[in-house]
Amino acid sequence: MLTLEPALRPRSSRGQFAIALAGGGPLGAFYELGALHAIQEAIIGRNLTDFDMYVGVSSGSLLAASLANGFDTTRMGAVLIEGESALVPFSPRVLLQPAVGTYLRRVSRLPGALLNGAKQWADEPVRGVWPAALGVLSTLIPLAILDNGPLEEYLRTLFATAHHTDDFRRLRAPLRVIATDLDTGRSVVFGDARHARVAISRAVIASAALPGLYAPVEIGGRHYVDGALVRTMYASLALEAGCDFVICVNPLVPFDASRGRPRRRLAEEGLDMLLGQTFRTLIHSRMQVGMASFRKRFPQADTVLFEPDATDETMFFTNVFRYSGRHALAEHAYQRTRRDLRTQANAFTALLHRHGLDLDRRCLQDRQRTFSSAFLERTARARATMRHLTEALSRLERVLAHRRHRR
């Protein structure tokens, strides 16, 4: 679904461009990558890596940080989706490694927990059985299921490669990564003047530390968790900075089961679906309130929001732990975004023209194009370049050999 919010009072001169990416877990990131790839192909005049500001929350912070670092959607797709990268190979284990250290630390508390439980039961032998048992259980439950350390190490290595950086202060354009301070419940913006010294890789895993799934991340003596707990979309940071064309992507929307055929009853789908729908509804309603205020607060800015449809079963019922479905989800997002761009091509083109950009309708009308097309084209270009280079070297070698022979 594509929502266009044209400026009430457009600027006469071109302003600055920004990208704001919401959270959505690992598969939310794959959805955003597919959508961003479609957007990149469709816009003529500006590459997504050449925008003026990037804002990311939770899993969206990983993509925002990559774009700010010069990794376009083709390169990110090669690494995260296609698994083809000679730079820094990516493995699913980076995201899905069990938090063994957390488990072991909790198990080490077992003797003390049992002793405290026994004392509580001894004080109230009859009524204290269940409170004692629950007390022991709560002490032993791990803080996280998965370890976010491998992701931090991977990002640190990736951003340390040539022409990239793990330092907010050395980026070409500002990057803002939002996390939640666990002890205060307030949002913290990494990359701003107060938090620019924090490594980008560290800020990203803090922003993506969904409680229960990943452990809180300690930075400067404080603990941080998922930035989406307070708000899922922080496009206002870009608007407040003066950007007047902001592209937003949000992968999580509540599912409307009443419009499906056949109709599904989410209460019968399981606890994960119940919790997922609850979480999506909470964060989406807050995002809608914020987006609705932008036209009044920032009348000079054009905002564009890309989201899944409310009836998108693929996005809602995909298992968040099924990493093998990343390619199908990215392709799904890519094709849905292209469909939305075709449907609103005239309105979107008019908006782009105000900023000196255009819409590549020919690319959008190519129904044979897939998410992988760009990677195939890049491979073909690389092979052609290598062939030309080989031929040039062969000619040079023949010339040098001929000159040596003449001497």
Keywords:
alpha/beta; two-stranded antiparallel sheet; 16 helices; globular
Any overview of this molecule?
The model has no long low-confidence stretch (mean pLDDT 80). The strands form 3 sheets. Strands 1, 2, 4, 6, 7, 9, 10, 11 and 12 form a 9-stranded mixed β-sheet that branches. The termini are far apart. Helix 1 packs parallel to helix 2, helix 2 runs antiparallel to helix 9 and helix 8 packs antiparallel against helix 9. Helices cover 48% and strands 14% of the residues. With 407 residues, the protein is α/β, with parallel strands linked by helices. Strand 11, helix 11 and strand 12 form a beta-alpha-beta unit. It contains 16 helices and 13 strands.
Estimated helix fraction: 40-55%
Structural class: alpha/beta
Number of helices: 16
The gyration radius over C-alpha positions equals: 25 Å
Strand fraction: 5-15%
Report the count of strand segments. 13
Mean of residue pLDDT values: 80
Instruction: Please outline the major beta sheet.
Output: 9 strands, mixed
